[in-house]
């Protein structure tokens, strides 16, 4: 059996992280190496490796993660933000537990996607 991901360990409380939101389906933490003034990670409690591993029954969870992004945008008064999901090593994913990056409060350029190291 593989080791739990860093996100599974954060969810379990084994590793500290600055939590900004949580519910029964996900947690949201601040990225430790932010690429924008607001850089949050929306992480499902269910340990899916990537979107490619999601099954039909995960559709409500995936929708919930995007809804949480919108809710945080409203709560934080953001007038815009970018959502990024890296799926697989070739796409820059380095933590193999599905998560969505919410980046805001900085003008985003197309090049920013290429400059982002993953997670």
Q: Which structural traits does this protein have?
A:
119 residues; alpha+beta; HIT family, subunit A; five-stranded antiparallel beta sheet; 3 helices; HIT-like
Reconstruct the topology from this structure.
Layout: H1 6-11, E1 19-22, E2 26-30, E3 38-44, H2 59-76, E4 81-84, E5 100-104, H3 110-115
Antiparallel strand pairs: 1-2, 2-3, 3-5, 4-5
Shape descriptor: globular
**Could you state the order of secondary-structure elements as H and E?**
HEEEHEEH
Number of helices: 3
CATH architectural type: 2-Layer Sandwich
Largest β-sheet summary: 5 strands, antiparallel
Strand order of the largest sheet: 1-2-3-5-4
Motif (Histidine triad motif): 97-101
InterPro entries: Histidine_triad_CS (IPR019808), Histidine_triad_HIT (IPR001310), HIT-like (IPR011146), HIT-like_sf (IPR036265)
GO molecular function: catalytic activity
Domain HIT: 6-115
Structural summary, described in words:
The protein has 119 residues and is α+β, with helices and mostly antiparallel strands. It has one domain (6-115): HIT family, subunit A. Helix content is 25%, strand content 21%. The chain has three helices and five strands. Strand 2 (26-30) and strand 3 form a beta hairpin. It has a five-stranded antiparallel sheet, covered by helices on one side.
């Amino acid at each position: 059996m593989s080791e739990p991901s860093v996100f599974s360990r954060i969810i379990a409380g084994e590793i500290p992280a600055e939590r900004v939101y949580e519910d029964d389906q996900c947690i949201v933490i601040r990225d430790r190496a932010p690429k924008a003034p607001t850089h949050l990670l929306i992480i499902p409690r269910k340990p899916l490796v990537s979107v490619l591993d999601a099954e039909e029954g995960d559709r409500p969870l995936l929708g919930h993660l995007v809804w949480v992004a919108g809710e945080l945008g409203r709560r934080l008064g953001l007038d815009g933000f970018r959502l990024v999901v890296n799926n697989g090593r070739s796409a820059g994913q380095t933590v193999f537990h599905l998560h969505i990056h919410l980046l805001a409060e900085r003008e985003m350029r197309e090049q920013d996607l290429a400059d982002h190291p993953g997670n």
